[in-house]
Amino acid sequence: MTSGVFDVLIVGAGQAGAMAAIALRQEGFTGSILMVGEESDLPYERPPLSKDYLAGEKPADRLLIRPPAFWTERDVTILPETRIAHVERGVATAEDGRLFHFGKLIWAAGGHARKLRCPGGDLGGVHVIRTRQDVDNLRADLSVAQRVAVIGGGYVGLEAAAVLAAHGKTVTVIEAQPRLLARVTAPAISDHYLALHRSHGVEVLLSAQVEALEGDGRVSTVRLADGRGIPCDVAIVGIGLEPSVAPLGLDGNGVPVDAHCRTAIPDVYAIGDCAAHANAYARGQVIRLESVQNAVDMAKAAAAHIVHGDAARPYAACPWFWSNQYDVRLQTVGLSAGHDETVTRGDPESGSFTLVYLREGAIIALDCINAPRDYVQGKALVERGAKVAPDRLADASIPLKEMQA
Ligand SMILES: Cc1cc2nc3c(=O)[nH]c(=O)nc-3n(C[C@H](O)[C@H](O)[C@H](O)COP(=O)(O)OP(=O)(O)OC[C@H]3O[C@@H](n4cnc5c(N)ncnc54)[C@H](O)[C@@H]3O)c2cc1C
Q: By C-alpha distance, which of 154, 323, 134 is closest to 234?
C-alpha cells in the first residue's frame, strides 16, 4: 500500500488503537478503517510482557488482542512496520514518505520506554520492556545471564524482578526514591512489596542513584552515585514511558484531549497512554494514565464521538489497574494521589489486605492485595466518593458492599 484515503486512520496498533477499531464497528461505523503501527505484530496485550510472557508461560500468539481473521472479517486494514512521522491538515505522512489522507484520525501511539541517559545507557545487555520484541531480546540474553540489575522499582520493574527471581536469577532492584512504587501507592503498600521481594531473595536498593552503566561493550556493572558497583550480566531499565507526541507537532508529557478525546487539531483524537486528560478521579487534574482500562475506555469514547457526535457519552470511567508479582495480585481502583488518610482492612501479615485511601473523608481509591472481593465491592464506593467512618472501614468482617455513603 503506497498511500490512500481513509475515513478513519488509527495510528498505533496497540491496545487503544485495536479497541478503537473494534468500538467503531460495534457502534455501526461502516466507513473505511486503516490502522498503522510501527511494530511488526498485530495488536497484542502488553501486561503479560513483564509477567507470564517473560516467564515463558504464554506463547506470542496468545498475546493477540484478536485473532488475525477478526480484522479481515471486520474490514479493518492493518499496516504494520509503518511509522507516522507527521500529521497535518488531514494527511498523515509516514517516515518513508507515504501519505495517508483521513477524515478522522485517532492518535493511539502510546509511547516508548524511557532510556537511561547516563554514560553506558546503550551498552549491550541493557534492556527495556515495552514491546514483544524487547522481551524476546531480553529472554535471549537471559539464557546466558545469572545476575540481573533492574533499574526502577515501579510495576514493570518489580514484575520482571519477581519473574526472574522465581527463575533462579540473582536480582538486584535499584530504585532512586526512598521507597518502591512511590509514585502510585502509600508507604504501607511500598513496605509490603519491599518485604515480599526481599523474602524471595531479591536485593532491593532504595535512594540509589544510577550514575553510569559500565562494561566493555556489554554491561557488567551498574555504578551508583555513592560509588557502589552492582555487578550484573543484564540490566533492565524500567523508568517509565515517553509519550509519542512529536508527529502531532507537540512536545511535553502527552497530547491534551477533551472529554471526547478530541485534540486541539481538527478531526484528530488521541487515546490511551499518550492522551493527557482532565480526570474526574484526579479532581479534574490533567493526567495521563498508563493502563488497559484507560486505553479501552478512551477508545470507546473516541469511537462513540466519531459515530454519534456530541451526543456520545464522554470519557468518565473509574480507573482500575492490576499487578501480579509472585503469588500476590494487586488490584487498584481509583486514584490515590492527593489522599490525606489511609485505612487498612485486614492484616497485612496474612498476605491479604486492602488499603483504602480517603480525601476529606471520602473514599478515593483502594489498593487490594489478594483481596478480590474488596476490589469488586469497593469500586462503587470510589465511584460515589462514599464517606464511611474509618473504624467501620477497617473492620474487614463487614463487606464493603454493606457500607453505604
Ligand atoms: C510491561 C508492561 C506491563 C503492563 N502491565 C499492565 C497491567 O498489569 N495492567 C494494566 O492495566 N496496564 C499494564 N500495562 C500498561 C498497558 O499495557 C498500556 O496502558 C496499554 O498498552 C496502552 O495502550 P496504548 O494503545 O495507548 O499504547 P501501546 O499499547 O503502547 O500502543 C501504541 C502503539 O503505537 C505505536 N506507535 C508509536 N508511535 C508511532 C508512530 N509514530 N507511528 C506508528 N505507530 C506508532 C507503538 O509502537 C505501539 O505499538 C503494562 C505495560 C507494559 C509495557
A: 134
State the Cα–Cα distance between residues 168 and 148, nearest whole angstrom. Answer: 11
Is the shortest distance between the CB of 46 and ligand 1 below 6 Å? yes
CATH no. for 327-402: 3.30.390.30
Does CATH number 3.40.605.10 belong to domain 115-237? no
Q: What is the pTM of this model?
A: 0.98
Residues of the chain with CATH 3.50.50.60: 4-112+241-311, 115-237
pLDDT of residue 405: 55
Query: Per-residue pLDDT for 404 more than 60?
Result: yes
For the domain 4-112+241-311, what is the CATH code? 3.50.50.60
363, 338 contact by CB (below 8 A): no
- Contact 334 CB / ligand 1 (< 6 Å): no
What is the whole-number distance in angstroms between the Cα of residue 20 and the centre of ligand 1?
14
- Within 8 A by CB and 6+ apart from 154, the residues are 181, 183, 184, 238, 239, 240
